[in-house]
Predict the 3D structure of the following.
Amino acid sequence: MTWSMKEVGFMWALWNKGIAVNAWRAKVDNLINQTCPLCGNEEEFTLHKFWECCHAQQAWEYTQGIMCELAYGDKPSWVVALLHWKQCVFVAKNPRQMQCVENIWSLPRGITLKTLWIEWNDLVFNNQRWNVVKIHEVIWDALLDYGRAAWNICMKLIIKTPRAEKKLLKKFDKS
Ligand SMILES: [Zn+2]
């Protein structure tokens, strides 16, 4: 599994309470409501923000659906609640059914975490509430952007080193 520096930085911040949540912010500022601003139902702790919240669950379900389509060509009925917060928010090994996408799981996982973080910031600081369509669009667009970037890197490598094409195709066949 390879991690980008951005993902490493984000995960470090998550593990070390560097991502502010209202449950902690309310302890130092009485004017801050400790409730989750997205659902308005629960105290906002890290796990709620990135996993338990209904907004987070929608995002994870969508991301898992994409991964299943990539792995199986369809979204199997068992996909809902397949992954646990340990696989999504942290880096626990995926269950057997998702092992085939283990190598690329860190990318959609990172995109989903970042999307949830941006959604939260947009609501809190810009008063912009996202609907589920927007969440899906942001996740999908980010995946496409990473795909284009990876494709461009491959093309530059092939142009620079023609022998790289054979190596890249071999790697692609194994994935
Ligand atoms: Zn919530």
Summary: The chain has a mean pLDDT of 82. The chain has one domain: 50-174.
